[in-house]
Amino acid sequence: MKRRNTPTKEAVLEVLKTAGKAMSQDAIEQEIHMDINRATIYRVLNRFCEDGVLHRIVADDGKQYFALSDKNDNNKVSDNHFHFKCLACDTIECLPNKVSFTVPNAYSVAHMNCVLTGICKDCS
Amino acid sequence: MKRRNTPTKEAVLEVLKTAGKAMSQDAIEQEIHMDINRATIYRVLNRFCEDGVLHRIVADDGKQYFALSDKNDNNKVSDNHFHFKCLACDTIECLPNKVSFTVPNAYSVAHMNCVLTGICKDCS
DNA sequence: ATCTTTAATGCAATTTTGTCGCATTTGTTA
DNA sequence: TAACAAATGCGACAAAATTGCATTAAAGAT
Asked: In the UniProt record, does the keyword Cell cycle occur (chains A, B) (predicted)?
């Protein structure tokens, strides 16, 4: 199942690169100045996550947000970092701070989803 | 707006105490052997969260899970702890490990939602 | 340049999760 | 026991995300 390049994929990536923060499907759709179906955007985003191009954050509103992964991001943050959701400007960004944790014996961790909520530097 | 005691509230609390882990509305409904409306359970859960009896966790499936808060739990975990979702048995539990983090200057944190996903001790 | 294969898309319907308005019921207190 | 307001049931609704299916269009082969 080889991937193909399509205008939609390029547009989605472009939007996320420009924004420099995590975005939800509907926010992405609003920024793309093309008429692309909702379901298609979801499929593109899911494929990017599968391929490691994006990573998915689930905020405490239950919505999925998507942000560039390391390999496609010029910043040096890794994927196991904290995310910060600002209550004022309602944006989600990747913090440079890594999540450090220990788990009790016999637990193994495959994935993490850590979101801090509060007021960001631009809104304080 | 003083709270009243109702059978529904008692039943919900009882289920959560017995389970000893975080549960979603539908899981709670299944465990309650009474015919209680979905919306009512949601309202009870939300009120409990307002009152600090429960705390709410949003897992990476986007669903809300509810667990007893400190004051009502005999365990000594505090509310700013990691949660662990097991991929095998699909349960969510509160880990004793506290979340420690630092944020960049001028950020203030009001709330956190941290869920680790993997295999729990019972399933490994 | 054209054909072929199959990934990608559009559309509509569906599922899931959670909330809300409103009439009715029921705790609680006087 | 009466009265007030919180709690409930019911139905409708909203938002987020997925899925089936027919159609379109990349990408490699001819």
From this structure: no
